[in-house]
Write a structure and sequence with these properties.
Helix content is 48%, strand content 12%. It is of the alpha/beta class. It has two domains: 229 residues, 2-enoyl-CoA Hydratase, Chain A, domain 1 (Alpha-Beta Complex); 47 residues, no CATH class.
Length: 300
């Protein structure tokens, strides 16, 4: 895989490890999101990679919040306060123009540059849910603001049990979440609990994030990298067609989408082989199967 400016990537088997590295501040910015956007485009076509571990530049640092100076520049470039109806129309216009070749590059040199960056950020994080790989956020540090929004866009989240915080404190800086965080947090927690976090800028410890279901597992801080690798290596063995179908159904929350994905995945050669292996190892006469005796379940 060709090198990136702000991403350090390494492939081990079918697991791609991605470290976001943006010295000296480590902050998220347009350059980081451009690299993550390009990474997602490559992963969409790369069948060698079955799982991705996304982490920060070094132990104790995950992906920090977005560079607020860039947001200020984008807001000031608009020249005047923008009422909600006008802003909504402008966002829709930029999204529509994004379908035209070269439109984003042209708009990037206009007062609408901030809107272009916002649209690209949304498209980049939305793409995580459509990729054929399982994306794991290895949270070894604070996940606040933009960093939290990146983590929420991942399929699974693993967090270190350190003095780390998880949340969306944007209102303390006078802005709401802007990269899909409010929507994804609401899907995860429900409207009432998401409102309590966002409107009060409440942040959660690793244990609280686990209890809320926002992270899947909490491990000792020093074990995050290895646990993420082990987890990814195991998940990389899953049938890609089944992964894609499951992610699509989770994203849409549609029974019809799930049904179509089930038929499509189950009729494939990989699924048929796995099903036959499962059935062959069962003992129907005594009611024994790989799930009932737990031999076919992942180790905890």
């Amino acid at each position: 895989m060709a090198p990136f400016t702000t991403l350090d990537v390494s492939l081990t088997g079918a697991v791609l490890t991605v470290r976001v590295s943006n010295p000296p501040t480590d902050l998220l910015d347009g350059e980081v999101m451009a690299d993550v956007d390009e990474l997602g485009r490559r992963l969409r076509r790369d069948r060698r990679v079955r799982a991705v571990v996304l982490s920060g530049p070094r132990p104790g640092v995950f992906i920090p919040h977005y560079d607020l100076a860039e947001i200020v520049d984008g807001a000031e470039a608009l020249g005047l306060p923008t009422p909600y109806p006008v802003a909504r129309a402008a966002v829709a216009l930029v999204a529509g123009l994004a379908r035209l070749p070269g439109a984003h590059q042209a708009l990037a040199h206009t007062p609408a540059a901030g809107l272009v960056a916002l649209h690209r950020t949304h498209a980049t994080l939305n793409r995580f849910g459509t990729l054929p790989q399982i994306i794991i956020a290895a949270i070894d540090g604070d996940a606040l603001g933009g960093g939290c929004e990146v983590a929420l866009a991942c399929d699974l989240r693993l967090m270190g049990d350190g003095d780390y915080l998880f949340g969306l404190p944007e209102l303390t800086a006078g802005i709401p979440p802007g990269a899909g965080g409010s929507v994804r947090l609401t899907r995860a927690l429900g409207p009432a609990r998401a409102a309590a976090m966002i409107l009060t800028s409440r942040t959660l410890s690793p244990a609280q994030a686990l209890a809320a279901g926002l992270v899947s597992e909490v491990v000792p801080a020093g074990d995050v990298a290895q646990r993420a690798q082990d987890w990814a290596a195991d998940l990389a063995q899953r049938n890609p067609a089944a992964v894609i179908a499951a992610k699509r159904a989770i994203r849409t929350a549609s029974v019809s989408v799930e049904s179509a994905g089930f038929v499509s995945a189950a009729s494939g050669a990989a699924a048929v082989a796995a099903l036959r292996e499962f059935v062959t190892g069962a003992d129907p006469e005594h009611g024994r199967t790989g799930w009932r005796d737990r031999s076919a379940l992942p180790r905890r």
